């Protein structure tokens, strides 16, 4: 005959079950906290998103509106390409472009002539501010029309928290969120030329200038501001860096990681190499299969 449990034994058994469940939940929560710690980033805002499904793999302050520095140049490039302007047209840099530089350094000087395509390449690959300024000023209708086109494009992409005031990113009034920038990266990835130019490791650019009555040709050598594009460990399809003091170090990429196409957005990272460090931390985190699907 089966012995009937004493009421106290039932209570003890129930308490033991509750205790085991509590331990299990606590262990799972501890594991989740450990996973988040393993991907502690120096970027104030960050987003890792599945490019195909839109699923957020990792998020940190994704709705914070912040200055985006030269990430702006992805929008600059889309506006130029959307208008279908002649990329072989020769554009001579003006004093107006220099004024837009706000004291930032550039190897491009007034009077130098380059093709619109080379200006686009320098803006995307080397984050050349004067090249981006020249693209804006040479746009049909001038800079005002160009900025209007930038904001109109942002509206089409449903970048509701974004605002652009100029094409270089030198103004801290160019603002967005990590969430909005993921939309911009996804859209920019649809342009083959943006993918090509933004991930080119190095390039030699032909430019010319007038000296008296003769034309003097020059070759200018430039490299990509994102050294990761030259690394065999990375499969990057689109890249853009940015920096001004108000925005910190920024980086956006469309990249193949852990057998997935991902959009990575890193904003306001402190330290000269911190955005690259954060990117490597994300790569390691994903390849190890660690971390929760989403954090904040």
Describe the structure.
There is one protein chain. The chain has 296 residues and is an alpha+beta fold. The chain has one domain (42-287): Beta-lactamase (3-Layer(aba) Sandwich), CATH 3.40.710. It contains 9 helices and 11 strands. Strands 2-1-11-10-9 form a 5-stranded antiparallel sheet, with helices on both faces. A two-stranded antiparallel sheet has the order 3-6. Helix 2 (72-83) packs across helix 6 (142-156) and helix 4 crosses helix 5. Residues 24-37 and 291-296 have low confidence and may be disordered.
In spatial order, strands of the major sheet run 2-1-11-10-9
The total count of helices amounts to 9
What is the structural class? alpha+beta
CATH second-level architecture? 3-Layer(aba) Sandwich
CATH fold label: Beta-lactamase
Find the CATH superfamily: DD-peptidase/beta-lactamase superfamily
Order of SSEs: HEEEHEHEHHHEHHEEEEEH
Largest beta-sheet details: 5 strands, antiparallel
Fraction of residues in β-strands = 15-25%
What would you call the shape? globular
Question: What is the total number of structural domains?
Answer: 1
Strand tally: 11
Which CATH class applies here? Alpha Beta
